[in-house]
Protein 1
Amino acid sequence: MSVELVLGGLLAAAVVVFVAVPFLRAGEAPQPDEPAPDALAAAEARDRALAELKELEFDHRTGKITDEDYRALVQPLRRRAASTLSNGATLSGRTPEHAPEQHFSDV
Amino acid sequence: MPELGRAALIVCLGLAVYAVGAGSYAAWRRRGRLAESAENAILASFAAALVASVVLLSALLQHDFGFVYVYEHSSLELPQAYTISAFWGGQEGSLLLWLLILTGFSTAAVLLARRSSRSLLAWTVPVLGAVIVFFSLLLVAVSSPFATQPAPADGLGLNPSLQNPYMLAHPPMLYLGFVGLTIPFAFAMGALIARRTDELWIVVTRRWTLIAWTFLGFGQLLGAHWAYVEVGWGGYFAWDPVENAALMPWLAATAFLHSVMIQEKRGMLKIWNVLLVVGAFALALFGTFLTRSGILSSIHSFTEGSIGPWFLGFIGVVVAGSAALIVSRLPLLRAKTKLESPVSREATFLYNNLLLVAFCLTILWGVVYPILTEALRGEPVTVGPPYYNFFLKAFGLPLLLLMGIGPLIAWRRASLRGLGRTFLWPLGIAVAAGLVLLALGAGSSIPGLVGYTFCAFVLASIALEFARGTRARRALSGGSWFGGLAELVSRNRRRYGGYVVHASIVLLAVGVIGSSAYDTTREQRLGPGQSMAVGDYTLTYRGATRERGVNAMETRALVDVERGGERLGTMRPGKNNYFAEQQVSNEAAIRSDRLNGEDLFLIAEQIERDGVFLKVLVKPLVNLIWIAGFVFLGGALIALWPDAREQRRLALRYGGREALSRA
């Protein structure tokens, strides 16, 4: 029996064991992570609204948006951001007071 | 050890088949253990591909000519570095490199995404497995690097064009780019199969796309430099089909990296983004097909193989399967928002996408047309540089302009008053630069003058973005200008990394325009002691030398160079006559001026006993192209660098999993 044959056999055996490890392990099987679509959609809407608000503030500070344009755009965006924050908090079970703080600290 | 190599490839194939079957069943029936087992099969396939690669590499280093591949692509006299690069010098070895990188990237993707979203990974694993099946099947059944023969005393050697230091890095770099595009494709398909309507796949894949895009972009520049110094024709990009093959997926990925921002910020262009991801992957496969099938003649197509129909079949399956999946998921992909104004940041991204995709498609048509005409009429119709140069100007100049316009416009919509305020300085600088260049004589090339004016506009717009951003950041948190700049960049890495990449594209454009629109070329026969003048240079032929190198006879013409009465040195253009390969290569001599970025490029077209036919090129600003490569790399690294704030936001959005940010 050649060395190559033995090495090839060892490789095959090792990968079979490695692939079978999840079946050999004791305990509960890992469950696929299933996010709740509604909560995820709300979280994405919340992040998008906050990011838009952040962009608007930045564009205003850097002079890309005039004061007049800023005033016209900021109120609807703020309302939408507030609405997505409360909606997201309801769906994710977080308190509405907690979530905005974490977000605005990054903005 | 060929049996071990063959066994490793068969094991790799078996593991990939298992990953497809078990992974699909596990995703369909929601079997956690089976899904993890399929993931492990992907990880193990990397180990198997690694074993096969080590076998081939050790055969090359030991000059084991019993391996047909080693015999055909190396020789005893081949320097060791090129013996290593012979790994990817032929078809079988380069396919093995594809498989190695593919399984390596797949392993990294599985490990990084494992804890972030198993439900997304569930269908991604079978897609990754399917691509691995294709490549390992090719290596097992069609094009094995482990075919053997009675060992001859010496090998045939490596193609002389590949005996260049750039060949140590350029092909692996391109392959890292090509193969890297598999990961976004697999995640996109995985998300569509799983009917995921959220944007997790976008978050997970954009960094992978950026990595692949960076490798592909830098790899192309390395290839351009290889062509410049090694092929010896005085250029760096010739619209060769294989060069185009690398450019097309890069353009598609560039479009995706811009349009993905619109999806993230506005929830639009979902279908478009999936199409770009599929397109980039299909074009990467098409590029490999062009390089390795031997279907067309190219200086970069070093092999003629039998794998063409296999690749075409696989590309067909990928395109048809992806199209069917996208059509079946159209209702999930429709956007709920729409473009508010044609004058907004997202609108400029859209225009940029249309131009990039249009440019990509015109290149694709130029590559495919000769193949089609040969198939239909029996003789190919060559599509040459004038076709591509026309579209480069038609699409490239507006793209350049958009790079300057985009950063100056606000998201959602911009008013005329706001535009006037932000455009004032960049426009003024561009017009002033154009007038100065015109006065300096740059009007000899109108496209060149327009290009340089646009470059000035883009650079001014980028500089203004950094200045205004830093000022705004300082107004918020105080501190020095440098501190404000550092904070600005670290808080918005993707944006400002992107601007640095834009600056590198401007440098590239300045170099390309300078060296193509304002270059000088002169050809002349010189006898010993005779001189010729080219631009500011005076060249005097002194004679020729002939020396035996490591694996070639090296003939050199000795040419003294003067400028303005000052002697700059002796240049030695010539030819190498390779012993084992029985081939002759052109060895150009290049003198770079570090102060003005100009190159003096000499080609000894024919060296005779009593003279030399010399071709001389003066290429202004050409060195900016290579500098642009490093700026590009720097910008890409800034954009790629992990952002702790973004990680926190994503962890909050997707359920507090810190691992997500690393995906």
Protein 2
Amino acid sequence: MDHVQNATERARDQVETLRSPKVIRVTTSERTGIRLTNLTKSYGVVKAVRGIDLTINPGETLALLGPNGAGKTTTIDMMLGLIRPDAGSVSLFGSTPTEAVDAGVISGMLQTGSLPHYLSVRELVTMMASLYPHPLQVDDVLRHTGILEFADRPTTKLSGGQTQRVRMAIALVADPEMLILDEPTAALDVEGRRDFWESIRGVAARGKTIIFATHYLEEADAYADRVVLMARGRIVADGPPTEIKARVGGRTIRATLPGVEVAALEALTGVASAEQRGEGFVIKCTDANSSDSALRALLTQYPQARDIEVRGAGLEEAFLDLTGDETEGTSS
Amino acid sequence: MNLVYVRYEVLRTIRNRRFLIFSLVFPLILFLTVAGAHRHATVDGIGFPLYYMTGMAAWGAMTSVISSGARIAQERSDGWSRQLRITPLKTSTYFAAKILTGYMMGIFSIVVLALAGTLLGVRLGATGWLTMLGLLLVGLIPFAVMGIMLGHLITVDSLGPAIGGITAIFALLGGVFGPLVTSGALLTVVKGLPSYWLVQAGKSAVEGGHVWTAEAWIVIAVWSLVLARIAVRVYRRDTAKV
């Protein structure tokens, strides 16, 4: 991983140093972003997170992708200092999570939680803004999150989607260096999701680091620069969305093709990889489009193909595939 | 201290109607009906309206300061405490805002009861009023701490009954509704309660500072310290980073 910082980032560091004295200790040399080292957490016999190592560069938008129970929330809670790891450590811009929280450098949107009663939306966001050293303008945040029209409504009279937007406004008004979102779109409808990611893109465009947990591959693909795939408390893949999508969002074609070379199959349109299993072949394609083209090409060139089977791997299945031969309970 | 945060904490409390009913309306109605019927009686050496006014003010203010802290239970159950823990808000500010809010509502109860008392003929000099107010505020300290403790100890479901029960028992034993015991071994026990001294705060307004003895300071201090120790323990248990 390349840690060289470009000029814009350095300039940003300087501006922030001027804006908030508390950020001074986050010097350019220390600004290694986020570093998780051998992060480990168990609940009784359940090993929620099994020794994660991860470095996140400032300005990255990273998706923690994984099925339920993969350890995403536990990882996030440790990054926010809500949970103490059994082993390993979290470093956020050179600080501990608690220091980063106290300095207002990070903010987050937790997976659960309702809003306090007897306040209007605007009052609540104003109250939360007052906790941070250099918050954004409350009205700007209300506008960007699309809650201006119900800003004077009591927090108890909101729909699920509206509540979620308010929780996001609370995280955004802090104007943090790093935003951590735990399954932020879970309660939103399609339109709400689109608006939500629109706002997040705006935050990312200002050079902020964003980490979000999701179990939607499409979300990770569409909005993250980098996807970290978690399963059973481990990182099983880490890379750009296209790469991860190819690994988990792909389709698999199985066919019996006597007398065909692997190399010839790999040369077909739409084929990402192919491997031979006896007379049969397992051909991997990155998505539905490419598997369609691959299938067409395959049938045209090799009419002798039989026992053809096309399968789209579900996330869950793809994860199990990636974790491979590992069985529950073994921890090497 | 973050004044914006405190302002909204106070606002949230004022808007909570149930809070106002129990800390203000109940004591006021009881005072007007009971003391109104015995305007010229005397009890425990002082005029009944003054005795009952202090008692009801103490009861209302006690309910205010306990409830304010105990509402932490609601914020815990809503997951709001977790959200606050990932902000720069200091725990001490969080507690201070709760105590301050409770005290503000408590002072409001005391002032309203004082006005009602004046209506029923209670007359005190400026020194008398200030002595009563000052000593009431001191006597409320253990109850404010108790509120914070309860907020981390009980669940939302038991919040109402717990506050109602605790304030009623302390008020009754302390002599808020009229002196329960005036002599004997039982009086020694009752004198060990902070609520007994809340009632004495009213007496001191007429009879002078000697009513508020060294024992009063010791009882208030011991209750406050012991409850604070328990509160810190339950808070740590509750927010333990498991």
